[in-house]
């Protein structure tokens, strides 16, 4: 049974941590090279969603936003890596 949601429910701390990691990863994607922190946004984001559903806490939107940013950066990194590999293969074949 899921606890009732009230306006006095606590904010899930992992959801806050996940969105902080996501914000740092997004701001540092091009400038600082800290996009690897997106991995640290995805893990706590999933755990936070689980805890929120079990405990009736707040922060579901924060957790979803952190997951969207984390997976978005991971997708961009994958596309970038595949482009780099294609470019390297093309250079080798020349």
Please give a structural write-up.
The chain is mostly helical and 94 residues long. The chain has one domain (13-93). The chain contains 3 helices and no strands. It has helices at 13-27, 37-55, 60-93. Helix 1 (13-27) runs antiparallel to helix 2 (37-55), helix 1 runs parallel beside helix 3 (60-93) and helix 2 (37-55) runs antiparallel to helix 3 (60-93). It is elongated and about 65 Å long. It starts with 12 loop residues before the first helix and ends with a helix.
Mean pLDDT: 87
The figure for the number of domains is 1
- Number of β-strand runs: 0
Q: Please report which band the strand proportion falls in: under 5%, 5-15%, 15-25%, 25-35%, 35-45% or over 45%.
A: under 5%
Give the helices and strands as they follow along the chain.
HHH
Q: State the helical fraction.
A: over 70%
Query: Mind summarizing the main beta sheet?
Result: none
Radius of gyration: 18 Å
Which of globular, elongated, flat, extended, rod-shaped describes the shape?
elongated
Which structural class is indicated by helix and strand composition?
mainly alpha
Q: List the total number of helices.
A: 3
How far apart the termini lie comes to: 64 Å
As residue ranges, the low-confidence spans are none
Brief characterization of the structure:
The chain crosses the membrane at residues 14-42, 62-89. The chain is 72% helix and 0% strand.
Task: Identify the notable features of this structure and list them briefly.
single chain, 94 residues, mainly alpha, 0% strand
């Amino acid at each position: 049974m899921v606890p009732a949601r009230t306006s006095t429910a606590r904010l899930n701390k992992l959801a806050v941590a996940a969105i902080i990691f996501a914000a740092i990863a997004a701001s540092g994607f091009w400038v600082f090279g800290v996009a690897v922190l997106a991995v640290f946004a995805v893990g706590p984001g999933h755990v936070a969603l689980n805890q929120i559903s079990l405990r009736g806490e707040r922060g579901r939107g924060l957790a979803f936003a952190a997951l969207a940013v984390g997976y978005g950066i991971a997708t961009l990194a994958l596309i970038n890596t595949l482009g780099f590999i294609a470019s390297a293969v093309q250079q080798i074949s020349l």
